[in-house]
Amino acid sequence: MAKILELYADDEEYLSKVGNALSSPTRIQILKLLYFNSYNVKEIAERLSIPASSAAVHIRTLEDADLIQTKQQPGTRGSMKLCSRKNDYVNIRLSGNDPSVHQVASVSMPVGAYTDCMVSPTCGIADETGPIGYEDRPGDFFSPGRINAQILWTSSGYVEYKFPFPLGDGIMPNRLMLSFEACSEAPNFKEDWKSDITIWINGLDCGTWRSPGDFGSRRGRLNPSWWDNGVTQYGKLATLEVTDSGSLINSQHASEVRLQDLHLAFGIPISIRIGNREDAEFIGGFNIFGQKFGDYAQDIVLSFVY
Hints:
By secondary structure, the protein is mainly beta.
């Protein structure tokens, strides 16, 4: 939802590559498999019951078409190629590239670049090399090193970010999309620990996503080696979409807040707050993952369709 691959008939060679990549049922199965998790080539082969050599060929075809991304990681025997999805939508305009019709501008915000927060133990922040400050000490959330954070967690409260308005003067979006990886926050981890995580834009409650738990039964695909087992490992992708008719979270109706209610304007920053309402049914805290933690290689992404 937040990541859209725009294709135009003008780019005949690339459009042919994408068409070829999508012409195989096996490659489509791989794309479906990677929508919710990242897997290495061996895992993909096992899940689809195909030879590893065939899986590797399919992966190269999808990678060449820019439909997936891969990353080399150390394995038990040499290195392994970890595969993850790169896009949520593929839009094809057969009449060619007409910039007046449809464009997307995205801003990727590091999870540690919050401008305000209210947190409570259990809480902490860390980057890919180790903890930032001390665990369960809320004051350390304002350490200068927080800008490098790749994961943050708190048992309640919120974090708030300021996003720039990336469009030119006189250009307004017709759709706004926010995407981030998150889960609940329990001591260590607890798979059935619910948390109602609300998203506010410019002070308006745009909806609440109920995280089903704090996931730690397996390692996050992207987690650095120093991160211990037995604690939070990964989250799920939460995507808020605000349109002219209302707001949706993960394609489900979330609120009546419409795009025009946000009062977006050229040159005015956009406030994004993520957290637990004080009157939420489940105040189960939250973890937010950056591009080097969890399962999804992304930070907090705000996209503008115009």
